[in-house]
């Protein structure tokens, strides 16, 4: 089986399905940890609709979709924060394909896309309970840094030079 990674319109059915899967997983994980329940379905729908991904549209953004054996398996997005800084976001793989190298492939493709847009630095944020994500970023050379945003759910911020 093999991986491919390619740009995808942020508003395509594939992008929407991956966004729903990503948001459902991270939201449910937070609520189960903090409140012992899954995300309220109405809240889930509102939050998914409130973040349609327009910031991942060219020229200042890009959504990448990974396919495993031809099937959509994950995503990663970038958005330019300024001329030199890109932000990595929406890094996600379906559970069934994790551990097969897709996450590193997606992040590296996002780094290449950011470099192609002139970025010399990539930043990202994540939560404390997303320990797998934090381990991935550290393994790929990201180091913890000071906050670059005020996202209420962000607990860890990372950066990496793209030189």
Commentary on this structure:
- The protein contains 4 helices and 7 strands, in the order E-H-H-E-E-E-H-E-H-E-E.
- The chain has 163 residues and is an alpha+beta fold.
- The chain starts with a strand and ends with a strand.
- Strand 2 and strand 3 (71-80) form a beta hairpin.
- The mean pLDDT is 95.
- It has a domain at 3-8 and 54-161: Gcn5-related N-acetyltransferase (GNAT) (Aminopeptidase, 3-Layer(aba) Sandwich).
- It has helices spanning 13-35, 41-50, 102-116, 131-139; strands spanning 3-7, 61-68, 71-80, 85-93, 121-126, 143-144, 156-161.
- A 7-stranded mixed β-sheet has the order 1-2-3-4-5-7-6, with helices on both faces.
- Residues 17-163 form the N-acetyltransferase domain.
- This is Acetyltransferase.
- InterPro entries: Acyl_CoA_acyltransferase, Bact_Acetyltransf, GNAT_dom.
- It comes from Streptomyces viridosporus (strain ATCC 14672 / DSM 40746 / JCM 4963 / KCTC 9882 / NRRL B-12104 / FH 1290) (Streptomyces ghanaensis).
- Pfam families: Acetyltransf_1.
């Amino acid at each position: 089986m093999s991986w491919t990674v390619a740009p995808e319109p942020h508003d395509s059915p594939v992008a929407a399905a991956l966004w729903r899967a990503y948001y459902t997983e991270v939201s449910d994980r937070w609520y189960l940890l903090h409140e012992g329940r899954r995300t309220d379905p109405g809240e889930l729908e509102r939050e998914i609709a409130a973040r349609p991904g327009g910031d991942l549209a060219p020229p200042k953004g890009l959504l990448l979709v990974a396919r495993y054996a031809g099937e959509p398996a994950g995503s990663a997005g970038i958005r330019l924060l300024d001329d030199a800084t890109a932000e990595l976001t929406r890094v996600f793989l379906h559970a069934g394909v994790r551990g097969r190298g897709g996450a590193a492939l997606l992040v590296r493709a996002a780094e290449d896309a950011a470099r192609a847009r002139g970025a010399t630095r990539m930043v990202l944020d994540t939560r404390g309970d997303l320990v797998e994500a934090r381990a991935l970023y550290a393994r790929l050379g990201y180091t913890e840094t000071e906050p670059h945003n005020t996202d209420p759910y962000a607990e860890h911020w990372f950066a990496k030079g793209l030189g």
